[in-house]
Structure formats: structure tokens, C-alpha cells
Design a protein that fits this description.
alpha+beta; four-stranded antiparallel β-sheet; 470 residues; six-stranded mixed β-sheet; extended; single chain
């Protein structure tokens, strides 16, 4: 039982004010000091830090208090934070059955509460493994790269309130003697400054042979064998290679792209867009747009809005085949391809048909930040009726995108380059972009595909078309 005079945090006293201790500052008695230094765990007043009494008081910076009368059932313990907790995997989304674990910490490492211990890579996204409490990793129950399912035990954590003190590194020993100076190389030999006089006449020409040259068939010529003991050819540079396991996201991407090639009758049609007007509008209003919405006005919003306009005009491109039926959607959900270090992800912007430029830019910015931070949820990538892939950010001039199944079409954007264009019988230099539409010919005919792409072209080249609904 603790002595009546103890040091503790006043905040903890307020938390348990039902005990109504009479508090008054005084010196700590010898008995209390002895029990504090003996290592009793801080169960006093329900303190949740789990440190020993002395370290808990130092942590809180508490004052010296006397007059506390604990109840008869109140006791002290010496093993609060010696507990070893077995941590299990978090719950998976419904469409995910298993994943591969990637450890960021090793056995013996200290982790704080909510600090990342590793992550679980699934087919669609990565799930972070956060420490439930501060402590030291005792054992990893699953090797790096191993498969795990929801609710599986993956590592053991020894609970600890404070990080262990770092050991002082030994000073590097100084070398006993300095290295001997390398002898200076001998000076290069200088060429002789004196040269003989030039020849007075050219050398004689060899006589022309009078007999015809003998012809030998090439088939009868035998290769000369290499001389024994010839030195082997030495290759310069590194010729090493390494094998790295393909992560689950990359495996899923490869499978889906190959499935698209096997199941879709893909055909691609092309067009080019004059970006002069949209670039002029962007340069004129980008500062005002940034000031009002705190966002940069880009070209992506113009193509997303133009695609929603064209999908409404050509609903078959927004449709999908479901067995023996065609499903027409009255809404437009556009998937925007985003490149991440782990692979390509396609977050979905929903109900684009009712958005303006600012709404689209805010949605693209939000999804892009979540994708780069690895915080995209499965729900952020589910669905989608049409996809836009912008290879122009990497400098691509021309390409044919692959359909993102089960969708029926995908738009490919490319880089903007100045090119000569015939306008009104004259050649002018214009900023031009090639665009490509890959579509499933099982559902979409060439007329609808070409009309769809021309609608995008007209809406980007002259945004007034959207206002007039032409």
C-alpha cells in the first residue's frame, strides 16, 4: 500500500475527483520516496501512461501533494507495461481476400502509438499497419512478402511507455600511421624537337601484276582456328542482375490489361486539337481562379468536362455489355489515371455531368493527393464509366491506350507541341495535341466513336460550345 504522502499529477487527481482527496503541497515522506524508487507501476489515480512512479511524475511535471487517502481496494503493480500484445491484421474490404505484408520495422525496433510498422499490399491498394500502442517489436510472425488474411496474427509488441535510450557509439579509432605518399609518376617523354628533312621524291609505285588473279570459291575457304593460349576477351562494366518479386498491384494491373486485350475488340481512332483558345483562357484567368479557389487551373478539367459533354451526346460510349444485355448509364463517372511509384491507379470522379471547371479541379486535386500519399480506398476506385489517361505529362506524342474493363472506351491525351497547320489557305504555327480514343468495337461503331471524339475536339477548342449546348 502506498504511503499517504505521494507525488502525482494534479490532472490525474481531477480525473478521479470522486475520491475527493485533500490536496496540499508538502514534502514527500521517506516511505513514499522509497516506494517511488522501488519501481511500483503507476496505477495511482488510474494513470494510463504505465510508466514507473518516478518517471511518470517526471513526465507530468507534477507537484508534491499530501493528504490522499486511497480506498481499500486500491493497489500498486509492478508489471503494467511488461505485457506482450499480439497484433492482428485490420479488416479488408469486401472485394479483397488477401494481401502481402511489407515490413518497415524490424525486431527490436521501438514504435510509437499510431506509427507505421509496415503495410499490406492488395490487388487494388495498400493498407497501413499502425502500432496500437508504443512499444518494442518482439517478433514478426509473418515474413516480409508473406500472404496474410483479415484477422491474422502478424507480430508481437512489448508495450513500453518510453523509447529506449540510445547507446553511445564508440569513437572511431584513429589510424596508427599516415599512409605513405604515392611516388610521383615520371614525367612524360617529350618528343624530339628535331626531325629529318622531307623526302625529295615520292616512293615508287609497285608494278601491276600481268597474270589474272586466282578465284577461289568461298565455300572452300576454311576458317583459321584460334591460336591456343589466346587471351580471352574481357568485358568492361557491371553485368549483374537481380530478381524482385512483383507486387500484387502490378500483378493485378498486368492481369486486367491482358484480359482487356483478350475480351475486347479494341479499335483506336485519332484526332488533333488546337489548344490555342484553351491556353489563352487559362493564361487570362489562372490568377483569378487560383485566388478564388486556391487551385491551379489546368487542362485536365477542360478534357473531363468535354468528355462528360460528349458521353451525354453519345450514350453508347458510356454504356457497357453485361452478358447478352447493354447497360446504358444516366450518370457519368470518369476514371482519371494517376501514376504512382507502385503502379497505375484510376480514382473515380463521380457525377461529372453536373460539375463545373472548379468542381472538377478540386476533385482531381483531392484524388491526386490521396493517390500519391497511398491513401486511396477501394471505394475511391470502384466503378467508373469512362477513363482518361494523360500521357502528355511525361512527354508522350502519340499512343494507343488500352480499355479499362468493364468500360467500353478510354481517351488518351498527349503532349502539346507547336506544329505548322493550314488555316484559311495559310500555314500557321499552332500548339497542337493528338488525342486517341480506344473503344470496344463489339458495342461502339466507328460512326459513334468518331462523332464522340469530334465532340471533345470542338468543346476543348471552343468552350463556348458547352454554354450553348451545341
Amino acid at each position: 500500500m502506498l504511503a499517504s504522502s505521494v507525488r502525482y499529477l494534479p490532472r490525474c487527481a481531477r480525473r478521479f475527483s470522486a475520491w475527493r482527496p485533500q490536496l496540499a503541497k508538502t514534502k514527500v515522506s521517506a516511505n513514499a520516496e522509497a516506494e517511488i524508487s522501488s519501481g511500483s507501476a503507476c496505477w495511482l489515480l488510474g494513470c494510463r501512461h504505465g510508466s514507473k512512479l518516478s518517471s511518470c511524475f517526471r513526465f507530468h511535471g507534477g507537484s508534491v501533494v499530501a493528504g490522499f487517502q486511497p480506498s481499500s481496494s486500491f493497489h500498486s503493480s509492478t508489471a503494467l507495461y511488461d505485457e506482450v500484445k499480439t497484433v492482428v491484421t485490420p479488416g479488408f474490404p469486401e472485394s479483397v481476400a488477401e494481401g502481402d505484408v511489407r515490413w518497415e520495422k524490424a525486431v527490436g525496433d521501438f514504435v510509437g502509438e499510431d506509427e507505421s510498422v509496415g503495410e499490406i499490399e492488395t490487388d487494388k491498394t495498400s493498407l497501413a499497419l499502425l502500432a496500437p500502442a508504443s512499444g518494442i517489436i518482439e517478433e514478426l510472425l509473418v515474413p516480409d512478402g508473406g500472404k496474410v488474411v483479415a484477422g491474422q496474427e502478424i507480430y508481437k509488441l512489448k508495450l513500453s511507455g518510453d523509447a529506449p535510450a540510445k547507446k553511445a557509439e564508440p569513437a572511431a579509432e584513429k589510424p596508427a600511421a599516415a599512409e605513405a605518399a604515392a611516388p610521383a609518376p615520371p614525367p612524360p617523354s617529350q618528343p624530339s624537337s628535331t626531325a629529318g628533312p622531307p623526302p625529295s621524291s615520292p616512293p615508287p609505285v609497285p608494278p601491276k601484276p600481268s597474270a589474272p588473279m586466282a578465284s577461289v570459291p568461298t565455300s572452300s575457304v576454311k576458317p583459321t582456328p584460334a591460336k591456343a593460349g589466346a587471351a580471352p576477351v574481357h568485358l568492361t562494366g557491371s553485368r549483374t542482375e537481380q530478381r524482385v518479386k512483383m507486387n500484387r498491384m502490378r500483378q493485378r494491373i498486368a492481369q486486367r490489361l491482358k484480359d482487356a486485350q483478350n475480351s475486347c475488340a479494341m479499335l483506336t481512332t485519332f484526332n488533333e486539337i488546337d489548344m490555342s483558345n484553351i491556353m489563352e483562357m487559362r493564361n487570362k484567368y489562372k490568377d483569378t481562379f487560383n485566388k478564388k479557389f486556391n487551385l491551379k487551373l489546368g487542362f485536365m478539367s477542360a478534357f473531363v468536362k468535354a468528355s462528360a459533354y460528349a458521353l451525354t451526346d453519345q450514350p453508347v460510349v458510356n454504356a457497357v455489355i453485361d452478358e447478352q444485355e447493354i447497360v446504358y448509364r444516366d450518370y457519368v463517372d470518369i476514371s482519371v489515371a494517376v501514376a504512382t511509384p507502385k503502379g497505375l491507379v484510376v480514382p473515380v470522379i463521380r457525377n461529372v455531368e453536373g460539375m463545373n471547371y472548379a468542381d472538377i479541379e478540386m476533385a482531381i486535386n483531392e484524388m491526386g493527393e490521396k493517390a500519391r500519399a497511398g491513401n486511396l480506398a477501394i471505394e475511391d476506385m470502384d466503378g467508373g464509366t469512362f477513363t482518361i489517361s494523360n500521357g502528355g505529362v511525361f512527354g508522350s506524342m502519340f499512343g494507343t491506350p488500352i480499355i479499362n474493363p468493364p468500360q467500353s472506351a478510354i481517351l488518351g491525351m498527349h503532349a502539346i507541341f507547336d506544329r505548322p497547320v493550314a488555316i484559311g489557305g495559310k500555314v500557321e504555327i499552332k500548339p497542337m495535341m493528338y488525342v486517341a480514343l480506344t473503344y470496344d468495337h463489339k458495342l461502339v461503331d466507328g460512326r459513334e466513336a468518331v462523332t464522340f471524339l469530334r465532340k471533345i475536339k470542338s468543346a476543348v477548342e471552343d468552350p463556348r460550345v458547352l454554354l450553348l449546348d451545341l
